[in-house]
Design brief:
heterotrimer, A mainly alpha, B mainly alpha, C alpha+beta, B: about 75% helix, globular, C: alpha+beta, four-stranded mixed β-sheet, disordered N terminus
């Protein structure tokens, strides 16, 4: 049996499609643009001390609430902190939360969803009923409980968001797997005895990638914004640390919306850019993975 | 099929039971019991008063006694009484449910319809200018926190333009009128709809792209069949799976409402009831709403699973 | 919290300064353009209780911590403060006498007052209300203020005589909290059942200028004019309390003309000041912002460490810059001149002294200090990061932990869970209000002395203050308390912020001033009217 598997999937055959995917991705102009934008944002966050000249938490009450200028490119906030610096540093928190929380929920959704869909029967029942239970809890109730049990902090924020938003992608993955499970090539693979794990990995998972990519791009925006909401409930990042979400929260005030736009527009643009870039990467990946698309 | 549904309904009973137990225990975990929410931080409530209140709220009973009592009452259709307003939980929810149904029903219908339409268009015209505009619009929609969109919408349409009322469900003190209700409904419904459009559109586009690449669709198109027919008859049907999942997953929101939008627009819905319940640690309200949402979620997921089999005949229910 | 300050960041801003310049605290701002000739009719819509902590649907005024502005529209009290909070005058009580040691109160009720259902208001209602509130089953902190009343006599329909175990002049202040309730409507409900009764939202009966009309859950409560109000029928036909869970939305509704009154943050007050058609009302919040130390922590048991905090934080700069001058510096809890003695230490910022004090005290700067707060607004957050910076300048690392009010109430009684609180406490109208925070008898988990202050001198002075009837002699007592607090710094007093309300200029004869929990002063609501 194992011999036959080897014949079906010799290593060079598996690897060369990967190279092919990378080649196709590199030729995808929009995707490369997205990748470059995302890399620039990420690198700026990583090397924040290099690309900024202020301490993000250094207040200066004499230079408060200033509009953009040569000294302060994005202006200063109500305590005189430099907003360009804070936006760049905030990227560290927001990118970490966005990417890691989504990674956790994607991993859970993939594993649980494909197991439930592929194996069916008891496995499906147990996993999906567990998913049902998780779906019934209003997140705001959970947040308050977690805030008490775990307290604030970056790690808790990532975990809470990651562990609370895998249910819908999980159902999406399962539905997709249910549908491809009965297609000819998977039936055939099973008939010739390819191990289930391999079928799932090589044949089933690529089929759910489109759903996962869409979820991930939507989920990153969701997680970045949610982090700020969590701060109110005592889970998220506490002051003075900045995140794009909590910088946006300042605009919960009509006067600032109207007369001090420099306080909320930069973090807003940072989020939109990041999310759009991730989406372009996602689209490119989808196209690169789809052998039928013209590239 | 019948046996499958029956089995799912039977499984739902122990699941509901487990959910009630979990929700009920959340109050042990959460910071601040209802007493702490009852008393402002700088007002003294002496021990005797505190004890009396604890007794009246049943908080002096052991956990399982309280749970047992709640379960007994719930089986009789009585979900307890709100600590904050003294209204019964059933009445509180009944008072708020119509507003939430109206808001979410409108928003979900529009959101799903436009989301699917835009998604199909974006897929058929992949990487066209239209696709680009719709994509950017979708991501602007989901990258903006709803409180910001909500305040901005109020600012523009109620304050600057004066076209629409600044929040609320009806003009206070006026008799009901349809135009009055609709004028209050437009903004919150539109904002929620935009978020649904964005999400539905992305999933639909992705599913459509997948199907459009399939051989039979290419063949149909190559055979010179009208594009619209191919898309409507063949492609779209096969792209329905994620859309059905999404619709199914948003059904509970029809009852549960939208917490932040309802708060910003002063919409008297269930979402706001839940939020004020959480703020006040009003556990009868929190547990009551969660319990109700649990039932709706279980039913919606069951229906979704059944619908899968209709949408995609390859799916077997077992 | 409704008692929470709704202040936000300032801007350099002349209009409000000009307005404030004319007001010596405490003072009252009245809509300027009231023309006595006009008026009559109309329904006034206000957001009388807004924001995340607001609870306009919490119907029981015996248990409410705030929202009195609204309750007083349909319920009445025996007495109320004047709008400048300088004295207490009669409302349902026409006059009263105290004996020399304040152990006996004789109240003379106003004749001809009727309940909304037409029944006469009598001494029996007063006795009923006090006994109901004082019963622990009512779970009323207001009622608890009457725990010292040993017996109540009603010699006739209009006279009530209260006997107290111990002299206490602050009962007059307590009466400004206590709404009168109808015995004839409530006598068959037990106090325990009343706390969870729906009577409060179905058809409550009061003696106020307006009576209950309708309650729309989640939307608003509407009252209509009470024709037989003892001061005369109100000029308004009705008044509505619209609910706004998001305070920012209420301000937009005010500006859009949908409502006529709401509370404003500092930012919003600045924004509205120049807008035609609106009046910004301002006054001291009567809430002291302070840093409360955990005195059971050996680090803070050392007076030098507490002093170091005061020397490190440049309070005048914070008031000037962050509050735009809209706060009054406090060197003890009180800011009213009669309670503040000469010669207080003003703790002007002095980084070297602060460092010296810390090193003298052997303060271990390697351990960060956590400041716990329930203030979630942007201005408070800005203030806290500024304090964080000032403390960093003297080598002390401060972490900030912002939680919601129920969490705060659960965490703060246990000193093991916090180091310092940043909080607000009412410092008036009666100066005794701080005794609940500072008397050693209150230093237990269920009470408010969460710093664990145990100072025999303070205990003695507070007891003396409660038994001193003569106002001048009483003021001397609180001056001594102020002196001790300034010296000992069990709390680091910071400032008393200004609070704002915004009203449509259409409202005539409108009186509104900030107060902890709102209301408790005579706002002449029966004279309010709407210009067409």
């Amino acid at each position: 049996m194992s011999d036959r598997t080897d014949q079906l999937g010799p290593k060079d055959v598996v690897r060369s499609p990967a190279r092919e995917v990378i080649r196709r991705f590199m030729r995808h102009k929009l995707a490369m643009t997205g990748l470059i934008v995302f890399l620039v944002i990420t690198l700026m966050a990583v090397f924040a001390p290099v690309v900024t000249q202020y301490d993000p938490n250094q207040i200066d009450l004499r230079a408060r609430s200033q509009g953009p200028s040569l000294d302060h490119w994005f202006g200063t906030d109500r305590t005189g902190r430099d907003l360009y610096t804070r936006t760049v540093y905030a990227g560290r928190i927001s990118l970490l939360v966005g990417v890691l929380a989504v990674a956790i929920s994607v991993a859970l959704a993939l594993i649980l969803g494909s197991c439930a869909g592929f194996f069916g029967g008891k496995t499906d029942t147990v996993i999906m009923r567990f998913t049902d239970v998780m779906m019934t809890f209003p997140p705001v109730v959970i947040f308050v409980a977690v805030a008490a049990a775990a307290g604030p902090g970056l790690r808790n924020t990532i975990l809470v968001i990651g562990l609370l938003f895998w249910m819908i992608p999980c159902r999406l993955v399962r539905a997709k797997i249910l549908s491809v499970r009965e297609t000819e090539y998977i039936t055939a693979a099973r008939a010739i005895g390819v191990p289930t794990g391999r079928i799932v990995r090589v044949h089933a998972i690529p089929n759910v990638l489109d759903v996962i990519i869409v979820y991930a791009t939507l989920g990153i925006a969701n997680a970045i914004l949610l982090e700020a909401g969590l701060s109110f409930l005592g889970v998220g990042i506490q002051p003075p640390t900045s995140s794009w979400g909590n910088m946006l929260n300042v605009a919960r005030n009509i006067n600032i919306l109207e007369s001090e736009p420099w306080l909320w527009i930069p973090p807003g643009i940072a989020i939109v850019l990041t999310v759009l870039a991730v989406n372009l990467i996602g689209d490119g990946l989808r196209d690169a993975l789809d052998p039928r698309s013209r590239l | 099929m019948g046996r499958y549904i029956l089995r799912r309904l039977l499984i739902a009973i122990p699941i509901l039971f487990a959910i009630t137990l979990i929700v009920f225990s959340i109050q042990l975990l959460s910071p601040g019991d209802p007493l702490n929410a009852y008393v402002p931080p700088d007002f003294p409530l002496p021990e005797a008063q505190r004890e009396a209140l604890r007794h009246q709220l049943g908080l002096d009973q052991p956990f399982f006694t309280r749970y047992g009592y709640w379960l007994k009452e719930t089986l009789q259709g009585n979900l307890g009484t709100s600590i904050r307003t003294h209204e019964t939980v059933v009445n509180s929810i009944r008072n708020r449910a119509p507003a939430t149904l109206l808001l979410m029903g409108t928003a979900l219908t529009i959101g799903t319809a436009l989301g699917v339409l835009f998604g199909v268009v974006a897929a058929v015209r992949q990487y066209s200018v239209l696709d680009g505009i719709l994509t950017v619009f979708a991501f602007l929609g989901i990258s903006t926190p709803v409180y910001l969109t909500g305040l901005l919408a109020l600012y523009i349409f109620a304050l600057r333009l004066g076209w629409l009322p600044a929040g609320g469900y009806s003009t206070p003190g006026q008799p009901f009128s349809l135009t009055d209700r609709l004028s209050h409904l437009i903004l919150p419904a539109a904002i929620i709809a935009v978020n649904y459009i964005a999400q539905t559109m992305r999933y639909t586009r992705s599913a459509m792209l997948e199907v459009l690449g399939q051989d039979y669709v290419r063949t149909a198109r190559a055979k010179g069949l009208d594009d619209r027919v191919v898309i409507a008859r063949h492609a779209f049907r096969n792209a329905l799976l994620p859309i059905v999942t999404l619709i199914g997953a948003s059904v509970p929101a029809l009852i549960g409402g939208a917490i932040f939008i309802e708060s910003i627009f002063g919409w008297p819905g269930v979402g706001r009831l839940l939020l004020s319940g959480v703020e006040a640690r009003d556990y009868p309200i929190i547990i009551g709403i969660t319990f109700m949402l649990a039932i709706v979620t279980l039913i919606a997921n069951l229906i979704t699973d059944v619908v899968y089999a209709f949408v995609d005949p390859r799916i077997r229910l077992d | 919290m409704r008692s929470r300050l709704r202040l936000s960041r300032p801007m350099q801003w002349l209009g409000i300064l000009a307005l404030m310049a004319g007001l010596i605290a405490p003072s009252v701002a009245i809509a300027q353009d009231a023309s006595p000739s006009a008026g009559g009719g109309g329904v006034l819509v206000g957001a009388w209780d807004v924001g995340p902590g607001g609870c306009p649907e919490c119907p029981n005024p015996l248990q409410a911590g705030a929202g009195f502005t609204w309750y007083e529209k349909y319920f009445s009290k025996l007495m109320l403060y004047t709008p400048d909070f300088s004295s207490i005058e009669g409302d349902l009580a026409e006059s009263w006498e105290l004996n020399d040691d304040a152990t006996q109160y004789t109240l003379h009720l106003r004749d001809g007052v009727t309940w909304h259902d037409g029944e006469p208001f009598t001494s029996a209602d007063v006795k009923f209300t006090i006994e109901l509130a004082a019963n622990p089953d009512s779970a009323s902190y207001i009622g608890a203020k009457f725990a010292g009343v040993s017996s109540i006599e009603t010699p006739d329909d209009l006279t009530v005589v209260l006997h107290l175990d111990k002299g206490n002049v602050t009962l007059l202040d307590a009466f400004t909290f206590l709404v009168m309730l109808p015995e004839h409507a409530l006598k068959d409900i037990t106090p325990a059942d009343l706390t969870t009764s729906t009577w409060w939202l179905d058809n409550p009966i009061g003696t106020g200028p307006f009576k209950w009309k309708q309650y729309e859950p989640g939307q608003y409560i509407e009252l209509e004019a009470f024709d037989d109000y003892w001061r005369g029928r109100p000029k308004l036909d009705g008044i509505i309390n619209r609910f706004f869970p998001e305070a920012g939305s209420a301000v937009i509704a005010l500006q859009a003309g949908d409502i006529d009154f709401t509370y404003l943050t500092l930012d919003e007050a600045n924004g509205l000041q120049d807008t035609e058609g609106f009046t910004v009302l301002a006054g001291p919040s009567q809430v002291l912002n302070y840093l409360g130390f955990d005195l059971t922590d050996p680090r803070f048991a050392d007076q030098r460490v507490r002093q170091a905090f005061m020397y490190a934080i440049d309070r005048p700069t914070i008031i000037e810059q962050l509050y735009g001058g809209q706060a009054t510096l406090a060197n003890c809890a009180y800011i009213l001149p009669q309670y503040v003695p000469d010669g207080l230490n003003d703790y002007a910022q002095d980084v070297d002294t602060a460092k010296q004090l810390l090193s003298d005290a052997g303060f271990d700067a390697s351990q960060p200090i956590e400041i716990l707060t329930y203030y979630a607004d942007q201005l408070s957050s800005d203030v806290l990061v500024t304090i964080q910076q000032f403390m960093a300048d003297v080598g002390v690392t401060v972490d900030i932990r912002a939680v919601d009010v129920p969490t705060y109430n659960q965490v703060s009684p246990d000193p093991a869970q916090w180091d310092i609180v940043f909080a607000g406490a009412a410092n008036g109208p009666d100066p005794d209000v701080l005794s609940t925070h500072w008397e050693s008898i209150e230093a237990n988990p269920s009470n408010l002395n969460r710093s664990g202050i145990k100072d025999a001198d303070l205990d003695k002075l507070f007891a003396e203050g409660r038994q001193t009837v003569d106002p001048d002699a009483r003021a001397q007592v609180y001056q001594q308390i102020c002196k001790i607090m300034n010296d000992q710094l069990y709390w680091a007093p910071l400032w008393v912020p200004t609070r704002f309300g915004g009203a449509s200029a259409k409202i005539e004869n409108f009186v509104w001033v900030p107060a902890p929990g709102g209301g408790r002063y005579y706002d002449q609501a029966e004279l309010w009217s709407l210009a067409s």
